[in-house]
Amino acid sequence: MDDYPLLNVFWTMMWFFLWVMWFFLLFKVITDVFRDHTLGGWGKTGWIIFVIVLPFLGVFVYLIARGHGMHERDRKQAEEQQAAFRSYVQQTAGTGAGSADELHKLAALKDKGDITQEEFDRAKAKILA
């Protein structure tokens, strides 16, 4: 441990952290390029080539030029995912409660004599199917 001082450990950790953050940022930019529906095929190709050939400059220019739109696309995607999740939960949770409620109404109609046992059985089979 004497041949590798604590300051060198700190610098090594910092450079490793920056390296990981750099790749995260690079992948985030590439993902955003392909996620953007307003950008045409040639625009996407140009940005990808720019980011691959001159990675540091390409990523920084992309962040300066399109950083605000990047945030908006992230927000829009998160809202769409949240809406899809809510829709799925409502659809899934509502199906069971809706069927039970309809069966309860059918049983009440049968008990009052408004429908016959045959009509009740057909409607029940349709609801449960």
Tell me what you see in this structure.
With 129 residues, the chain is mainly α. 88% of the residues lie in helices and 0% in strands. The chain has helices at residues 6-35, 41-53, 55-112, 117-128. Helix 2 (41-53) packs across helix 3 (55-112). The termini are far apart.
Give the gist of this structure:
This protein has helices at 6-35, 41-53, 55-112, 117-128.
**Estimated structural class:** mainly alpha
Shape: elongated
* Overall number of strands: 0
* Strand residue content: under 5%
Q: List SSEs in N-to-C order.
A: HHHH
Major β-sheet annotation: none
Number of helices: 4
End-to-end separation: 72 Å
Low-pLDDT regions: none
The amount of helix comes to over 70%
The average pLDDT value, as a whole number, equals 87
Rg value: 30 Å
Keywords, please?
129 residues; elongated
How is the topology of this model organized?
Elements: H1 6-35, H2 41-53, H3 55-112, H4 117-128
